[in-house]
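Form 7-S
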Amino acid sequence: MELTKKLKIENDLGLHGRAAAKIVELTRQYRSKLYFNKDGNEEVDGSSILSILTLACPRGTEITARAVGDDSEELLDSLGMLFKRKFGEQK
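Output:
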């Protein structure tokens, strides 16, 4: 199964190292593969901190997540919650 989901970065610091690490940690809990795309550019691997950081996403950026695999819906739901909770940051 392949699904996509639009996500908005709402935490003050944007998509920085700690946030990217939380995404990678979450991704490892699922069998599906995760990819991110910003502004229609080339996709990056959602299981790589460095790949995620190359997106250079400050607060307010919208990105598209694409999950491929049998548990892709669960992965995208969990990912959406992580973004909604601003990666556990106070601000």
